[in-house]
Amino acid sequence: MDKIKVMSVFGTRPEAIKMAPLVKELESREEVESIVCVTAQHREMLDQVLEAFQIVPDYDLDIMEPSQTLMRITVKALTGLGDVLEKAKPDLVLVHGDTSTTFVAALASFYAKVKVGHVEAGLRTFDKYSPFPEEMNRTLTTDIADLHFAPTKANVANLHREGVEKNVYITGNTVIDALKTTVRDSYTFQCQRLNEIDYQKERVVLLTAHRRENYGEPFQNIMDAVRMVAEKEPDVRFVYPVHLSPYVQQMARDNLGNIPNVDLVEPLGVMDMHNLMERATLVMTDSGGIQEEAPSLGKPVLVLRRETERPEAVEAGTVRMAGVEAKEIAEKALKLLNDPEEYGKMARAVNPYGDGEACRRIADAILYAFGKANQPPEDFTPGTEE
Question: For a designed S-S bond to 144, which of 90, 106, 190, 196 qualifies (C-beta 3.0 to 4.6 A apart)?
Fold first, then answer.
């Protein structure tokens, strides 16, 4: 074998953020021929990340359509990936995390008898409907994958519990690698409203809320909690990049549109999001990836969900579960905004998710698995970074 032909497949903004630094790492390895295939399960938000990291896909399935369903995403991606695999003939397909693109790319690779490497393997809530459909996507991908790149020891324990013992590597999370290149001291936001905020004088709360399983009463409760905190703390500014989902857009406008210290802004590119996070005081989110990103920047996180597949952050003290009840969310937010000691405990906690070397470890593990290196990479251990 000459070069190892590695095809990275992703389709959404969160996947792209976490796979982009890995694509760059693979491109730097002389033993690897790096190929990129995007499904464009998300289009506009995916393209923002590709542009930020200067990645031009070799294959673009462009499957996104208005009001797309999970079934349509699955069918279109599976058909398209079948054709790409036949043309590209990779030795290894890398998938990330837990999206529909992730599972479908793993399934298509299995049908084509191509090895699969799963980046961010081993996350679990053990509730197949929460988050939906992510929990089953990642569980089914584990069943197919040949190489498992787990961010933490707890993720490895989950895999071992399911009988996955071989070819498991503790790498840290690639999103920490991404932050090394995106966060800058002197930065001009593409979203003009963000340039108008005085981050030295105003306490800024970054809010993200879009999870499908929160639709309905939980989402209304989140909106109510934000309104309560905003009205009680008029000197605190909420910045809410509103997801493109029509449901989320309407809920944000109806509930928060007329509150003077709440800014509803368009979805942010990765550079704007990471630099806003670095300048924020507090993060409130139902997202998964932000639970990893914010702690590395010393920002406390309140998780607007009933459970998390990232318990390491809760145990480390960088993240707190706020649930989906308005009163509880508001109380926890107000506590952090007004109690310096509580805030300091979270802000100073050690990030359990990475040291910025995850992509190197994954690339090294691939070389080892394909006989191009004599030793596997060292495991990531939190608290050892400089």
Answer: 106
Look-up of token digits 């309407």: 250
Closest by CA position to 108, among listed 100, 42, 14: 100
Token pair of 173 as six digits: 């999370």
> Position 19: which residue type?
M
Let me know if residue 269 belongs to a domain: yes
Helix (H) or strand (E) run with residue 218 in it: helix 217-232
pLDDT bracket for residue 1 (50, 70, 90) = low
Q: By residue range, what is the domain housing residue 324?
A: 192-347
State pTM to two decimals: 0.84
On whether both 84 and 206 belong to a single domain, the answer is no
Work out the pLDDT band at 296, boundaries 50, 70, 90. Answer: confident
**Count of domains observed in the chain:** 2
Rounded Cα distance between 178 and 175, Å, is 5
Whole-angstrom distance, CA of residue 75 vs CA of residue 87 = 19
Cα(259)–Cα(356) distance, integer angstroms:
39
List active site positions: 98, 120, 134, 210, 212, 243
Q: Please indicate, yes or no, whether residues 271 and 220 belong to a single structural domain of this protein.
A: yes
Q: What pLDDT, on the 0 to 100 scale, is given for residue 45?
A: 80
